[in-house]
Amino acid sequence: MNNMKTYNSEIIDNLLDTITPLEQAQTDAKMMLAARISDAMKAKGWKNKDLLAAVNKENPSVITKWLSGTHNFTMDTLVELQRALDINLMDIEEKREDIVIDFHTDTSKNNINKTKLAHIYCYSSKSKKPDKINCLA
Amino acid sequence: MKCRLVKLSKFSSNKATVYSIIINNEQNTLFDKFIQENANSFINELKDISKRLVTIGHKTGARENFFKRNEGIPGDGICALYDEPGSHLRLYCIRYGTQIIVLGNGGPKPKSIRSFQENEKLTDENYFLRWLSKEISKRIKNRDIEYSNDYLEFVGELEFDDTQK
Q1: Who among B9, B28, B65 is closest to A68 (CB)?
Q2: How many CB atoms neighbour CB A79 within 10 A?
Q3: Is the pTM of this model over 0.90?
Q4: Where are the beta strands (DSSP E) in chain A?
Q5: Which residues does chain B have with pLDDT short of 50?
Q6: CATH number for the domain running over A10-85
Q7: Smallest Cα distance from A96 to chain B, Å
Q8: For a pLDDT cut of 90, what percent of chain A falls above it?
Q9: What is the pLDDT of residue A112?
Q10: pLDDT at residue B115 in the model
């Protein structure tokens, strides 16, 4: 229902219905990348010409294109921009792995000091065998 | 001829409010007409434009870099939404910071022309927005239109009469 201020358009609705969530996410990503680049330039007090010089390009229109939110960036360009602007545009840093720790207390050994030997096995997705760490419990 | 601003619900969210214009008591906005007029020949470009408007409203706001500026006279905020490289359609808007945009109409810009003034349809749509921008500016100055507290909406008298156009 349309009132004075808010307008629900069937024509817009029909058009938006043809857009898949993946397509929308791709546009979101392009525009948000452009926004992040623009913010990083502002933080450095850079104009377009400063970024142009930092990435050793000659044609100023390339910066306009990058910032327009329409550009489909290549990996090479993103890496170049990350280095020039000192920001992370891809968030592909190696993440800490989940580590599962099992405690196995060795109660069979009758130690003089009544201490118990615990073996800590650390499993990670990279290691073929669990790392065994001994400690006293 | 009268016109009024209406908020487009599907594009407007917490980052920007997207308005369009209803002429007289017509059912459709100028942006609806833009879609209808170009749906047969440029449906993919219309989808691209719509996706960008959704992102602007919900994720990024109407950042200056997303628009081709200086499509009007200095200071009137008239711009065109940048679209995918190689596209044909030009959609005219008035931009008020990153929080508010008003969508007008537009049309295909033939590759054979350099400036929009060489195309009658684009000229009409552009000059209508120039007039509207001037009227909105007058009202902002007179406080007949104000920004909401979060600067995301216009508050006040959003109906216009272009008999002075």
Answers
A1: B65
A2: 13
A3: no
A4: 6-7, 100-106, 117-123, 131-136
A5: 165
A6: 1.10.260
A7: 29
A8: 61
A9: 47
A10: 86
